[in-house]
Amino acid sequence: MQILPAIDIKNGRAVRLYQGDFNQETVVNESPLTQAEIFAQSGVDYIHVVDLDGALDGQATNAQLIAEIKAKTGLKIEVGGGIRSIAQIEAYLQAGIDRVIIGSMAVKSPDFVSESLQRFGSDKIVVGIDAKAGMVATEGWLEVSDVDYLILAKKMEDLGVRLFVYTDVDRDGTLAGPNFEHYQHLIDKLDEAKVIASGGVHAMSDLVTLEKIGVHGVIVGKAYYSGAITLSQLAEF
Question: Who wins on pLDDT, 80 or 24?
């Protein structure tokens, strides 16, 4: 199971949010690059980066900073936040980014997902599903649709998506534990696609449970930044 420490970028700094609320922000490192270097030095090989400004702006606001992180650390990176065009995806991939996460556009334009898969392949394109009470949230989690997360996931898998990042927004940044039931339902629903779990991880025992459920990877954010889980523990796992 893949472990991906998270770096969320807002106003040029690495931050953590509580339940996706942009008004409940904690700065965890003034420099996202420095934070990425800490991860690289610890033996981490893959990180999850979210452009929070981009999620609000609807564009790749921090693309240059993210490209710098890639160039200077050599880490494998998956990026989400504000992906709205083929040109943005292409620019990220040309900068060496390993995977690009399509979020809101998966709800709004399935054709955009299809075109992205055809152009870049299912190993480069990830669909991020963020949900509140099981209903898909979009636009930086500021809007909640009437689309059920399981229905969207199955629809995307039928288009050719082979990797999802699923976040229960209500758990994100809370250290309340993941929504194990949702991950089990998601894995039961999908035929071939794999799932990366995100949101709520608060202890190493969560990673053990998620591995038993069968997720492909886990994103660890606040649990690391709060000291509940150490980098050495993640490396050992």
Answer: 80
